[in-house]
């Protein structure tokens, strides 16, 4: 009887938690964003919703207001599209039709800019350059996050929309003060009277001439204050509606983008969607990740589509990490370039046909990679993080990414990896028996070996001394070093030793003056449960992909993590994610072999992928093939073979 009461209580609690979750956490999401132009105010709502139904999308991200309203507002200083016919309520018609077909609607607002009459009436609401001039782009004036437009009038605009329309959520684009315009021109930082006053109140001094960490903290704080007020308004007017923003505080869903730009520095990042969704879902597990799969190549070419296989790769990655399936297009489905729309269509249909697998997923990974620290405004090496992210994916080590420390005390990990951020709270994790790898010249903020010196921008080597630790580097004596190196105090024989720069030419003179040192490139501490590589091995691997850097990481991780959660013969460019969903577990296989530099092509078909996964699994089913896979037990591992892999496969484990 007591056990029955306990079980009943647990079930009741589970049902209560489920009831408290918003639709964005309970339901599978197939999200299409239509970034409407003002000329699209004449679109046919019946045609748009019919296209959504045929596409099997179930969330429409629809432009509502802000810069242009697709309804006729009554609140002053909010303007309807000049193409919207008198008396026509496009937003109302679309919402009614969407709901009639079981499609949720998330309204899009952009409060960052508005028209000249608003500026003329209230110049104090607007962004001011250092010279006092406003920021104007295509006739629109940029508002300031600390001005009366964002802090007061925008809430009136939103209140009218929320009271008038039964939206399922609201999204906000370009939130806060932007230091660059759409053309990439640097407009600087706001010097309006409100910013000056608030900054002096907080810090007791004038605004800095150039952005620094304190100013970034100031902008972070101000934008979060406004974001919180918008969240309160949405929940008071529409308690069942979601709040979506690029800010993760106070929101229900964390927005991000997988996008491109013609001048973006190489190498390109083919893990964009995986990175965004993995980080969002594990940093804030109670919030949904909506990573927008952007169709266009760059702002100047909104109707030029990225390669179709780039679209499909992002789509599979979104699903594989537990996020929403998305597609974002400029305009409507009747697009000038339909390649992205047609590329994503079969994936939307697949996700609809198998939607039971794409709600409520959580990472089952036992390794954590710390991402960019949230809510700090401090600098951070993206290259270091990306190099480690890529290495873990290529090694098929299931891992979660978090840019917060909310996991401490609530979720266990076998290993935590810090690329450029080892905060003091990690000391508690180590004291509890955790294992830690730090890969950065930046000293950790936890008790660690004493720093002796820092060598900046050095171009030397590390000599391999411990052959047993690095078995994959049997043909290598020297490992490239390019960047900062922090010399630390160590006891015992160093496994890697620093070789400082020496002569590089002419050929007759190269490295004839090379000198070895006993300065270590790897130090162990916390009774061998923590390792510090005090140089940027992750950044070097990201830029150069040298097997030597991968070998160093592999050796250290194998020492810290002698039994991996997953073992496989899969190609390094097969991304494997390990997720749990209720009583079952899911393995997603995403084939990246079609990616080459700036090209995205059909992935190579692969066969006979052997998988050993830790756990008491008795069955495995390849969902797309509809076939059961034979499972064998080998110690603590369940072993099966995936016969073939195209672009994607999902294996259900029970």
Characterize the structure shown:
This protein has 654 residues and is of the alpha/beta class. Among the domains are: 367-560, 3-Layer(aba) Sandwich (Rossmann fold); 566-653, Immunoglobulin-like. It is 28% helix and 26% strand. α4 (90-100) links the parallel β2 (59-65) and β3. It is globular and about 80 Å long. The model is unreliable at 1-19 (pLDDT under 50).
Provide the fold topology.
Elements: H1 2-20, H2 23-26, E1 30-35, H3 45-55, E2 59-65, H4 90-100, E3 104-110, E4 113-114, H5 116-121, E5 136-137, E6 140-142, H6 148-164, E7 169-173, H7 193-203, H8 213-237, E8 242-245, E9 253-258, H9 272-283, E10 288-293, E11 296-298, E12 301-305, H10 308-320, E13 325-330, H11 339-353, E14 362-363, E15 367-370, H12 382-394, E16 399-402, E17 415-418, H13 426-431, E18 436-439, E19 451-464, E20 478-488, E21 496-499, E22 523-525, E23 530-533, H14 537-544, H15 547-560, E24 566-568, E25 574-581, E26 584-591, E27 595-596, E28 599-600, E29 606-614, E30 620-622, E31 627-629, E32 632-634, E33 637-645, E34 648-653
Parallel strand pairs: 1-2, 1-13, 2-3, 3-7, 7-8, 8-9, 9-10, 15-16, 15-17, 17-18, 18-23
Antiparallel strand pairs: 4-6, 5-6, 11-12, 14-25, 19-20, 19-21, 22-23, 24-29, 25-26, 26-34, 27-28, 29-33, 30-31, 30-34, 32-33
